[in-house]
Amino acid sequence: MKKIILFLFLGAGFLGNSQQMTLKKGVVIDSIAVKDSISENFSLYIPTSFEMDKNWPILFVFDMEGRGRQAIRMFIGAAEKQGYILAASNNVNDALTTSQNILITGRMFNDIIKILPVQKNRIYSAGFDSGARFASVLPIFVKGISGVISCGSVYPNMDILDTNNLFHFIGIVGKEDYAYPEMLAGKSIMGRLKFPNQLLVFNGGHEWPNTQYLGKALEIFNLSAMAKGQSEKDEAYINDTYAQNMEEINLLIESNRLIQADNLLDEVMSVYRVLKDGDSLKRIKRELKKNKLFKTMTRNENNTLLKESFIKEDYVYYLEEDLATYNYNNLGWWIYQMGELKKYDNSKIEAEREMGKRLLGYVNALIEDNIDIVNSGNQVDQEVLSLLWMLKTITDPTDHSYYLKIISNSAKMEDYGTSLFYLEELLKKGYTDKAELYSLENTALLRITPEFNDIVAKYLKDARYETIEE
Predict the structure, then answer these.
(1) pLDDT digits (tens, 9 = 90+) for 296-342
(2) Using an 8 Å Cβ cutoff, are 63 and 88 in contact?
(3) Are 153 and 187 in contact (CB under 8 A)?
(4) pLDDT in tens, 213-253
């Protein structure tokens, strides 16, 4: 398909000298320089239906490693279908302070609204995980952002919400995501504070949702704008999207995914409240509440959420205790806990299987957060860091990087016994990169020992250095 090229003529007020900028519709345009900055730039996507003679909603997407192009690509299908401009900074980063990231965002924001016909009351922000947390706080600090799409992250701090500065919050989360319980609770709190909000739930873990759910979030923003009179009411669009949602609800009920059906029912009822008659939705809701299987599933979910909260408290308590006392002797307790989580995989109760996945994600995130905290200190506590790496080999044994860190650090401390133990554990997990093993930092003396080479030869057939028997 031939791409349509849009020519934008920028005057002296933007670049200082009148010049022509060429923007292609339907492709991600990378590294557009920000005015009055040395090295800041952003990525941009303009839908193929774009025309200069009308104002367009825009979605700013945030990735806190500055991967703007990648972040935008997640929303392209949804933006094309729903009619949104997409923009993403290539400079925001978790290593920067919130205020620095807000300033970077503000400069990008100001540039874009000067060159594109943006609908001023339809500016939104979005992200996943840390990007979602940053996107969520932007309406507090950047005037004009009227809605947020938060994927895999609850609103970071309910205390800073201002009921005089309401914005629309849409959460999207997988049922196996460790953020699921917090996002359920967050939805309730935001509702009490009168913030318009929805929570879309999909089958999956801590990951970007697919285009269907991202598109549904943009669809909700469109319908909300029509309900508020911010955009022209499109009856065909309202009826089509309503019919699609009804079809999805019925499919969820037919496949016995009743918790998700109930959740979607609630969201559809809130979105179409002033746009459509809701009698049919209310009837389905009443019938669902009478369903015995739904009652059982609801009871199971509530029970597992309560149990999950207690287990998470144990994880936090014992991790704090172990780190404070350098308690390597408690590694066995963590191995036992991972064994207990695996048992949930075979549970006949779906809510328990989902809980097991969430708890595994939670404990890994908890340990990784502590690793980040230790590494960010002025003086790194190497003993604590080593213990955290060992915990990661227990909670995420397929991530080989932590074994390598332990081997290197233990060799540096001349603790060759620990290095050799984790070397063998690593090779048992199927690790095969011999070149990396023999170039690992701090292991020059270790890797010429007979013990090291015997272990390598045992799993990888041959070692670099031969063991000479006397």
Answers:
(1) 999 999 999 999 999 999 999 999 999 999 999 999 999 999 999 99
(2) yes
(3) no
(4) 999 999 999 999 999 999 999 999 999 999 999 999 999 99
CA-nearest of 46, 33, 165 to 107 is 33
Tokens of 430: 């199927």
The angle subtended at Cα 373 by Cα 370 and Cα 378, nearest 5°, is 145
What confidence score (pLDDT) does residue 465 get? 61
Name the nearest CA neighbour of 120 among 276, 231, 275, 277. 231
Sign, CA dihedral 345-350-355-361, equals positive
- Paired strand residues for 408: none
3-state secondary structure of 20: strand
Name the residue among 429, 432, 404, 434 with its Cα closest to residue 419. Answer: 404
* Under 8 Å between Cβ of 123 and 116: no
pTM: 0.90
Distance CA 15, CA 461 (A): 63
- The Cα–Cα gap between 340 and 337 comes to 5
**Residue 7: its pLDDT value, please?**
41
Tell me phi and psi for residue 316, to 5 degrees: -65, -45
**DSSP state string for 70-137:** HHHHTTHHHHHHHT-EEEEESS--TTS-HHHHHHHHHHHHHHHHHHS-EEEEEEEEEEETHHHHHHHH
| Pairwise CA distance, residues 31 & 41, whole Å | 5
Whose CA is closest to 195, among 155, 254, 243? 155
Alpha-carbon separation of residue 463 from 11, 102, 405, 469 (angstroms):
67, 52, 21, 15
The crossing angle, in degrees rounded to 10, of helices 279-290 and 235-254 is 10
Who wins on pLDDT, 464 or 106? 106
Distance CA 327, CA 269 (A): 52
Dist. CA 312–CA 308, nearest whole Å: 6
Q: How far is CA 177 from the centre of its chain?
A: 10
Pairing of the two strands 85-89 and 56-62: parallel
Q: Which amino acid is at 13?
A: G
Take residue 325 and report the two structure tokens written for it: 């006392």
Q: Which amino acid is at 311?
A: I
Query: Cα 14 to the chain's mean position, in Å?
Result: 35
Average pLDDT over residues 446-454: 93
Q: How far apart are CA 171 and CA 136, in angstroms?
A: 10
pLDDT of residue 466: 53
